[in-house]
UniProtKB/TrEMBL annotation, chain A:
The lineage of its organism: Bacteria, Bacillati, Bacillota, Bacilli, Bacillales. The modification Phosphohistidine is found at H83. It comes from the Bacteria. InterPro entries: PTS_IIA_lac/cel (IPR003188), PTS_IIA_lac/cel_sf (IPR036542). It holds the Pfam family PTS_IIA. It comes from Peribacillus deserti. Keywords: Phosphotransferase system, Sugar transport, Transferase, Transport. CDD domains: PTS_IIA_lac. This is PTS system cellobiose-specific IIA component.
UniProtKB/TrEMBL annotation, chain B:
The modification Phosphocysteine is found at C8. Residues 1-103 form the PTS EIIB type-3 domain. It comes from the Bacteria. The keyword Cell membrane does not apply. This is PTS system cellobiose-specific IIB component. Keywords: Kinase, Phosphoprotein, Phosphotransferase system, Sugar transport, Transferase, Transport. The keyword Kinase applies. It holds the Pfam family PTS_IIB.
Amino acid sequence: MENIDLDTLTPEQINFMLILHSGNARSKIIQAIREYREGNVQEADSLLAQSEEDLKVAHEIHFKMVQKEASGEKVDFALLLMHAEDHLMSTLTMKELVKELLELFKQKNL
Amino acid sequence: MKKILLACSSGMSTSLLVTKMEAHAASIGEEAKIWAVGQDQAKKEMADADVVLIGPQMSFLKGEFQKEAAKYGINVDVIDMMAYGLADGKKAYEQALKLMGDK
């Protein structure tokens, strides 16, 4: 799903795409913690890196939406958009926290 | 009648997908009971389903859900990325049918 052209998607589909990529990232972040628990540190780090890639895609879509609004095109406010925004923000928060925590655990040999 | 359960963390995005899947099923004259729940209810609700499709946010739970679903002899899979991202009811419905073994 490279170079997504927002103009070919309905607002609903754009929101679903945001949730999709945030959701994929979220899953990988949880899996990273689980892998770390099992002692698979490299796998944990790899999953976190992959989650950052997913979040990057979500961010790019979101950025295009922000640009559209800034250029005067009205964005329809919908519950689904709120939901997508929630997913993106909360997943970004999770990623930041988990990244920091895993480094902390490594340092403490946990 | 086909019974398709969808689950995602809060059940909102999947509820929308449900509407589209229902519309597709109706359009091809098939009877289907399709519903969406949050991940906490999914394990209980799958007792009533022929197949379970889960949202991308829950994909890390696939293994756990498959174990539970095995008790009922049904399959679990993550909703196809393209089907989810494009809110494609037809594609999601077809994925469900395939997982059911076209019963």
